[in-house]
Amino acid sequence: MTAPGRRSSTFSRLLRHGFTDPSAAERLLEGAGLALVRTDPVLLEALGATADPDLALQGLARLLEAQPDATGRRELLDTVIAAKPLRDRLLGVLGASAALADHLARYPRDWQALVTYEPSDLHPGLVEFEHGLEDAVDPVSLRVAYRRCLLSIAARDVCGTTDVAEVAAELADLATATLRAALAIAKASAPEDAAACRLAVIAMGKCGGNELNYVSDVDVIFVAEASEGTDEGKALKAAARLASHLMRICSETTVEGSIWPVDANLRPEGRNGPLVRTLASHLAYYQRWAKTWEFQALLKARPVAGDDELGRAYIEALEPLVWQAAERENFVADVQKMRRRVVENIPVAEVERELKLGPGGLRDVEFAVQLLQLVHGRADASLRSGTTLDALQALAAGGYVGRADAVQLDEAYRFLRSMEHRIQLFRLRRTHLVPEDDADLRRIGRSLGLRTDPVTELTREWKRHTGVVRRLHEKLFYRPLLDAVAQLAPGEARLSATAARERMIALGYADPAAALRHLEALASGVTRKAAIQRTLLPVLLGWFADSADPDAGLLGFRKVSDALGKTPWYLRLLRDEGAAAENLARVLSAGRLAPDLLMRAPEAVALLGDGDGGGLEPRSRAHLEQEILAAVGRAENAEQGVTAARGVRRRELFRTAAADIVGSYGTETQSAEADQGALVDRVGGAVSDLTAATIAGTLRAVVREGWGDTLPTRFAVIGMGRFGGHELGYGSDADVLFVHEPRDGVDEREAGAAANKVVAEMRRLLQIPHSDPPLLIDTDLRPEGKSGPLVRTLKSYEAYYRRWSLTWESHALLRAEPVAGDEDLGRRFVELIDPLRYPAGGLGDDAVREIRRLKARMESERLPRGADPKLHTKLGPGGLSDVEWTVQVLQLRHAREIPGLRTTRTRQALAAALDAGLLSAEDAEILDEAWVLATRVRNAVMLVRGRAGDTFPTESRELAAVGRYLGYGPGHVGDMLDAYRRTTRRARGVVEELFYGA
């Protein structure tokens, strides 16, 4: 007897053998059932070798207790002590699966299924499992027989007799045998239905791929034909009843639980389609209606039960369609989009623990492998395996995947599948979440051979393998393209020229030959530069492929690399700063404008990084003016100074465009900007501030060269239109008025001549042909329009507006704001025009009618011939003009009484009108949405085409690029146009009521 306060020797031994509750274990060992063997070193050693010694001992004690008599208990104990194969198998199962321990406690003689150790028992196949289920005559007996077979699979698994791929194949064979047995039971209960039809069961998913989990839905598709002499409609109804019965037999919960759900949702039309179809009906659907993911699912299709001939005919009929799927438009984008959608649907709290669907999980490997199979399996039949690891091995053997990458993915997949198996085996529940409890993690870690510190080691290995998958699963598709052109490692199997071309076409490249030449130029050789490019390009190619014009992205990257390749910081920036490479890929493949701006000064690529250069955040107007004025001050003459100012403008236009593209596309770490209005305001504010700073710098340069520090007349530039409203787009001219006031003692004619010379020289310098884009000055909104003088004195403006001002000029002045020059003069100009644009008493009826007539005339005269009015962003129904004129009429009528309306900005004025109760919240939202969308479309057209436009492009790639910028994925251009028409149609209804008074 152990003295009080001292541990027994048994207690100490139990601790050494891995028991976490030695006291409870000691009590069990001292019980009647185990008393005779409680000190047996063989038993303790065997228990200590299990995943959970405590659980294994509890299960053994329960199993002994469940034996029918003393003879049974003695037989079990003798066999456990004497027969090592049984001991390892039985205790291994009891230490890994509480659910199978429960089964053994209910069926205490089933332990004898683990005694045999024949070759056929080591690696059973479909025949052995069918034999194990042959006595099942109803759902209950089928479940018991299924668990007995599952017991033997688990025993081989936990003892390491079979590896994870063999376990998955055995589980798929057991599922096949179970489906056949269930179909036999269903037919036996309805012989008339069985006689009326030929029914084949096609396994899909993991069952079809011979890689099933312990607990998983078994995906199937049913195909049927009428028996000879039977009406097809009646035969299909009979087949549907058989199929439904089969599903219930496997899925429904009985006193013995369920086996697993049978899921037929992969069938044509999913759960909305008929459960059973004829082969002709299946074929018609896949030829005409099937989506890309449905062909991807058919990769694993395999006939498993029912009519063998019909099952084979189904596979033979549909297989050619599977291998044509990669020829579909947007094939790669569709597959990748499906993968992203799966990740997005995972609850946020579960993403990091999701073993199957999370980033770096099993599905990443499976998607990558299936993508490559579909692209290259057309020409290479060796790739047509439904089993992930077999397909991965074939891809590596054929050079479609680098061997080192394939080895790493194989190891990661096996480890993650082993974790998944151990997690499910414990309770035989369908789950892919890594548990959080340390006891669970300890059991899983020990079951995988991690014994020193199971929890820490398991977590480390799990994270390491998911990291490998995250890093490789997309590169897997692109890296062999580089190996194919770089010609580095001798003896390594590579993509053939044809296979490389197929892959580039699948990625969406219109000119695969040119794309491969670019890759060869970038990645060939043994230089450090080429080595870094080979690291970068697999990721960049993926980002290019996620755009509407991958060819342009890759060509642009080659040009930038050629220009900057010798600078030490360029490739280091892309390699080391996470955002830079992705931002560059997005910018280069989104259209022409940003790459054109970048190629004029490629060093601006530094703006795309995370460093201290300000990144993509827009710079303030004060900051811009300070830089431009400093550059002008250092210049030797006006032309040189304005050239410097235009250089700053080009760089900042690139910064703004890049930020807009990245915000619209989103990145891997940050989703696209959800607030479209914020994107519009950011672009409008940045471009307007930049234009104002450029004009201020140009004014300073011209004055300094012609007159030194002081011009003979005070001079101010007034922004008008979108410029005054802080709403300039990338392709907008700068609408302005010029105002001057002679200094004291200066002759008015001299002052006027100086002012006109300044205007002429500013316009000339800002439009001189140069590598930097010109800035066009538009003065058509001045008094008397094109017929009037370019510049007037403040007194002249006062006299004109007092005597001759027309309604349209008051309307135009709503957006007037000083942007450059003499601040006091600009302020006094605003004081002069305020009574005109914010008239006392508001707007008279005659003035309102005149504005309406003017707008109608403008729409009829200026709308381009042949243009679709409903898609014209400026003059079309519900477009910019409709919204702006509606808001401006509200300003002309009410701004005198409502100070909030005294703003040059459309959205601010609209918000102020809402606050003042001049329109409903719904109407304000409709107008705002339409105005933001139309502005975004105009910006998109300029970004994509490199030149301004008010309508959607007609060329398909350009139209797709506009759609991508607006958040529409590949193949959804029609949805974009429908959404635009719908949004502007609603806005037009509001305009009819508020502007036209309908």
Characterization of this structure:
- Strands 1, 2, 3, 4 and 5 form a five-stranded mixed beta sheet that branches.
- It is built from 45 helices and ten strands.
- With 998 residues, the chain is mainly α.
- The chain starts with 8 loop residues before the first helix and ends with a helix.
- Helix 41 crosses helix 42 and helix 43 crosses helix 45.
- 61% of the residues lie in helices and 5% in strands.
- The N terminus is likely disordered.
Give a concise summary.
By secondary structure, this protein is mostly helical.
SSE topology:
Elements: H1 9-16, H2 22-29, H3 41-48, H4 53-66, H5 70-82, H6 84-96, H7 98-106, H8 119-122, H9 126-133, H10 139-158, H11 164-189, H12 191-196, E1 197-203, H13 205-208, E2 218-226, H14 232-251, E3 262-263, E4 276-277, H15 279-288, H16 292-298, E5 302-306, H17 308-322, H18 331-344, H19 362-376, H20 388-397, H21 403-427, H22 438-447, H23 454-472, H24 475-486, H25 497-506, H26 512-523, H27 528-545, H28 550-564, H29 568-576, H30 578-589, H31 593-600, H32 621-634, H33 638-665, H34 676-707, E6 713-719, H35 721-724, E7 734-742, H36 748-767, E8 777-778, E9 791-793, H37 794-803, H38 807-813, E10 817-821, H39 823-837, H40 845-862, H41 880-894, H42 906-915, H43 921-945, H44 956-965, H45 973-994
Parallel strand pairs: 2-3, 2-4, 7-8, 7-9
Antiparallel strand pairs: 1-2, 1-5, 6-7, 6-10
Helix pairs in contact: 1-2, 2-4, 4-6, 4-7, 5-6, 6-10, 9-11, 10-11, 11-14, 15-17, 18-19, 19-20, 20-21, 21-23, 22-23, 24-25, 24-26, 24-27, 25-26, 26-28, 27-28, 27-29, 27-30, 28-30, 29-30, 30-33, 31-33, 32-33, 32-34, 33-34, 34-36, 34-43, 38-39, 41-42, 42-43, 43-44, 43-45
